[in-house]
């Protein structure tokens, strides 16, 4: 199990605990916890509707892929803390992380 804190678009924060043994992405996990994430492309790094910004723990994550970099470059509000939740595997590297959901709802 891994624990991390999610800040929703309305500013509300919640600590979540999720299993790491199912091979899920952070996007899939957030959807399972009923966060409103479009995930239009189904996790292929093609739509950026699962955009998140890390306040804590980003340095523990795997490097961004070229596809993730390309998609983040299209977002006007992306910065150094931006990631696509579909490209992050739920594992021990997320322990103690804090991030805000930013992706579009349209």
From TrEMBL:
UniProt keyword annotation of Aminoacyl-tRNA synthetase present: no
Record-linked CDD domains: fer2
Ranges where the 2Fe-2S ferredoxin-type domain occurs: 1-105
Cofactor names: [2Fe-2S] cluster
Presence of the UniProt keyword Metal-binding in the record: yes
Protein name (record): 2Fe-2S iron-sulfur cluster binding domain-containing protein
Pfam families the record matches: Fer2
Organism: Arachidicoccus ginsenosidivorans
UniProt record similarity statement: Belongs to the adrenodoxin/putidaredoxin family.
GO-annotated biological processes: P450-containing electron transport chain
Keywords annotated in UniProt: 2Fe-2S, Iron, Iron-sulfur, Metal-binding
Taxonomic path: Bacteria, Pseudomonadati, Bacteroidota, Chitinophagia, Chitinophagales
InterPro entries: 2Fe-2S_ferredoxin-like_sf (IPR036010), 2Fe-2S_ferredoxin-type (IPR001041), Adrenodoxin-like (IPR001055), Beta-grasp_dom_sf (IPR012675)
A GO term, aspect molecular function: metal ion binding
């Amino acid at each position: 199990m891994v624990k991390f804190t999610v800040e929703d678009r309305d500013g509300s924060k919640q600590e979540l605990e999720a299993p790491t043994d199912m091979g899920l992405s952070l996007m899939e996990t957030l959807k399972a916890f009923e966060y409103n994430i479009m995930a239009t492309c189904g996790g292929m790094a093609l739509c950026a509707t699962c955009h998140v910004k890390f306040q804590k723990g980003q340095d523990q994550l795997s490097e961004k892929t070229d596809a993730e970099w390309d998609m983040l470059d299209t977002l006007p509000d992306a910065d150094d803390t931006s990631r696509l939740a579909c490209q992050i595997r739920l594992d021990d590297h997320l322990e103690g992380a804090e991030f805000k959901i930013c992706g579009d709802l349209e």
